[in-house]
Amino acid sequence: MTNLSNTANQQGTSPMPFARYTPFVPVDVPDRTWPTWKVEKAPRWLSTDLRDGNQALIDPMTPARKLTMFELLVSMGYKEIEVGFPSASQTDFDFVRKLIDEDRIPDDVQISVLTQAREDLIERTVDSLVGAPRATVHLYNATAPLFQRVVFNVTPDECRNIAVRGTEMVMKYAEERLGGLVGSEAFGYQYSPEIFTQSDTDFALSVCEAVSDVWQPEAGREIILNLPATVEMSTPNTYADQIEYFGRGLTRREHSAISLHPHNDRGTAVAATELGLMAGADRVEGCLFGHGERTGNVDLVTLAMNLFSQGIDPQVDLGDIDEVRRTVEYCTNLPVHPRHPYAGDLVYTAFSGSHQDAIKKGLEDLDKKAAALGVEVGELPWEAPYLPIDPKDVGRTYEAVIRVNSQSGKGGVAYVLKSEHKLDLPRRAQIEFSRVVQQRTDSEGGEITPEEIWAVFRAEYLDRETPLKLNSVHTSSAAGEKDQLTVGVYVDGERRELTGAGNGPINAFTNALNELVEAEQAAGNPAYAARGEVRVLDYHEHALSSGGDAIAAAYVECAVGEKVLWGVGLDANIVTASLKAVISAVNRG
Ligand SMILES: CC(=O)SCCNC(=O)CCNC(=O)[C@H](O)C(C)(C)COP(=O)(O)OP(=O)(O)OC[C@H]1O[C@@H](n2cnc3c(N)ncnc32)[C@H](O)[C@@H]1OP(=O)(O)O
Ligand SMILES: CC(C)C(=O)C(=O)O
Ligand SMILES: [Mg+2]
C-alpha cells in the first residue's frame, strides 16, 4: 500500500534499472508497540572502532594508532570496546596482548574480540585473552538464506549447528585457557547472527535460542545477542519491528542483552538505531563518526549527541568534540565531513542572511536573559534559532558560528563586528554595510573572513581622509547658549580652521561645514561646486569598553546632498568620535 498521491508530479520514468531490485519483505508485527516508546536513557555502548572500523580502513591502524584510539575511547567513557579480530592477523593478536601485558585496560572496561565459528580461529582468539582482567568473546555466523546457500552451502539446521558448535568451543577453550575468568561476570559471551536483517527473524531467533541453550545465561552470566543490520537494506521502522518481534519471542530475556549493530548503507543507521532502542534493545555497537565497512557502522557520536540534545545523559564525554575528531582523523587517516552532524567544520555556522539574523537575535536574547538573572548563558536552558545545541557545550565557539558569503545578510556581518570589535551598528547601518560586503563577495566570490570584513569596514568608514580629515577640536558651551565649536580640518589636504555654533557639537560642526561649502561655492571654487549640504538624520553612540581609557563609537546617518550615508567615528572623546562620524559620512559621499 502506498499513501503517496501523484498530484502534480511532472517527473518521468528513470532510465535506471530499478526493476532489478525487489523490495524488502518486513516481519509482520501489526501489534507493534515501539512507536509509543521513548528513549529516556543511554544504551550500553560498544565501540567497534578497533575492529569493524579498523577492518574497513584503507590503511589499517598501526599499533601506535590503535593504542591512541583505545585511549581516546577509554577517556571518553566507553566501557565496552571491541579491540580486534585476533585470529585474523598477528597485528590484531599482538595488540590484544599489548593491552593485557602492559596492564592498559582499566578495571571498569571490558574488551571484546571477534571470531568466526571455526575451531582453529576460536582457539587462537581465546589464546589472545590469556591474563585479561575481563573480556568478552564475540562469535558470529551468517543466518541469512543467501549466505546459507551461496557462502556456506549449508541447510538451516547446519547453519544453526555452526553457531552451537562455535559456542561450545568458545566455552571449552575459555575453560581450558582462561582459568578463573570463566564462570565469573568478568568473562562475557556475545553471539551475532550476522546478516540478521536479511534473515528470517524466526530462524535467527531459533539460532540465538540454541546458542543460549549452550551458554545458559542466568544472573551474573548474561549473553549478549547482537542483531546486525550487516547491510542496511530496509527502512528503520522495519528494523525496529524485527527487534520488537525478536525481544518478544526470546526466552531468558532478563539475562540477555539485546544489542544493535546497524550499518549505514541506506544512510539511515542512526534512525534505525533510535527506533531499535524504542523497540527494546539494550545496547548499541558502532564507531565514532560512522567508520566501518562500506558506508560505515552507525555513528556513535551522532547517537550520543542526539541524546544530549534531548536532555539525556549520553554517558560519554564529547565536551571537546574537535579533539575527538582530530584524534579519530589521525587514527583512521580519513577526514570527517565538514557537514558531519555535531562535529563537522561547518555545522555551527550559518551562511544565509536570514539564518544569521535569527542566530544573532537568539544569542543576544540569551545574553539578555543571562544578564537579567545574573547567571552565565551556559547555565540557561538552550534555545536559539537554527542551533540545536550550544556550540560551547562541545567546545566550539560562537566566533565560528557565522560565516559570511554572498548569501549573507546584515546579521552575519553585524555579528562579526559586534563579537570581534564590539561595534554595535544601528540597524540601518548594518543594512548599509552588509551591502558593501555583498558587493565585495559578489565580485570576488567565496567566503569573506572576519579579518577581511574588518578591513572592508575600516576602508569604508574609518580610514578615508579626503576630502576631510579632522585635526583638532575645541568646544565651549555656556548654560542656555548654543555650543561653540572650533575645529581644525584638512580639506583636500589644506588645513582650515572652522568655527560654528549649534544645538550641540554635531549641529555646530555641520553648520560650520555647510558655511564653508556655501562660501567656497559663492567664490566660484570649482572643487566645491558639487558638494551638497550636510544634515544629520540619526545618531547613536556607545562605549566599546569600560574604564578611563574607554573608546567611544559614534554612528551618524547623514544626508550629504542627495545621498543618505552612515558614518562611523571612534575616539576616546565622544565629541571627537561624533565629528569623525560626520566626516566619515561626508567622505563617503
Ligand atoms: C560483517 C563482518 O564484519 S564479519 C567480520 C569480518 N572481518 C574479518 O573477516 C576479519 C579479517 N578476516 C580474515 O583475515 C580472514 O577471514 C581470516 C584470517 C579470519 C580467515 O581466513 P581464511 O581462513 O582464509 O578464510 P576466509 O576468510 O576466506 O573465510 C572463508 C571461509 O570461512 C567460512 N566462514 C566465514 N565466516 C564464518 C563464520 N562466521 N563462521 C564459520 N565459518 C565462516 C566460509 O564459509 C569460508 O569457508 P570455505 O573456505 O570452506 O568456503
Ligand atoms: C560481526 C558482525 C557483528 C558484523 O560486524 C556485522 O554483521 O556487521
Ligand atoms: Mg559490522
From TrEMBL:
Signal peptide: none
EC number: 2.3.3.13
Obligatory cofactor(s): Mg(2+)
Domain Pyruvate carboxyltransferase: 43-322
Enzyme class, broadest EC rank: transferase
Transmembrane spans: none
Gene3D superfamilies assigned: 3.30.160.270, Aldolase class I
GO molecular function (one): 2-isopropylmalate synthase activity
Region (Regulatory domain): 464-589
Alphabetized PROSITE patterns for the sequence: AIPM_HOMOCIT_SYNTH_1 (PS00815), AIPM_HOMOCIT_SYNTH_2 (PS00816), PYR_CT (PS50991)
Main location: cytoplasm
Catalysis: reaction(s): 3-methyl-2-oxobutanoate + acetyl-CoA + H2O = (2S)-2-isopropylmalate + CoA + H(+)
The keyword Acyltransferase belongs to this UniProt entry's keyword annotation: yes
Pathway membership: Amino-acid biosynthesis; L-leucine biosynthesis; L-leucine from 3-methyl-2-oxobutanoate: step 1/4
Entries under InterPro entries matching the protein: 2-isopropylmalate_synth_dimer, AIPM/Hcit_synth_CS, Aldolase_TIM, IPM_Synthase, LeuA-like_post-cat, LeuA_allosteric_dom_sf, LeuA_N_DRE-TIM, PYR_CT
Residues given in the record as Mg(2+) binding sites: 52, 261, 263, 297
Location(s) in or outside the cell: Cytoplasm
SUPFAM superfamilies listed in its UniProt record: 2-isopropylmalate synthase LeuA, allosteric (dimerisation) domain, Aldolase, post-HMGL domain-like
Keywords, comma-separated and alphabetical: Acyltransferase, Amino-acid biosynthesis, Branched-chain amino acid biosynthesis, Cytoplasm, Leucine biosynthesis, Magnesium, Metal-binding, Transferase
Physiological role: Catalyzes the condensation of the acetyl group of acetyl-CoA with 3-methyl-2-oxobutanoate (2-ketoisovalerate) to form 3-carboxy-3-hydroxy-4-methylpentanoate (2-isopropylmalate).
Entry similarity comment: Belongs to the alpha-IPM synthase/homocitrate synthase family. LeuA type 2 subfamily.
PANTHER family: 2-ISOPROPYLMALATE SYNTHASE, PTHR46911
Subunit text: Homodimer.
Protein name: 2-isopropylmalate synthase
Organism: Nocardioides cavernae
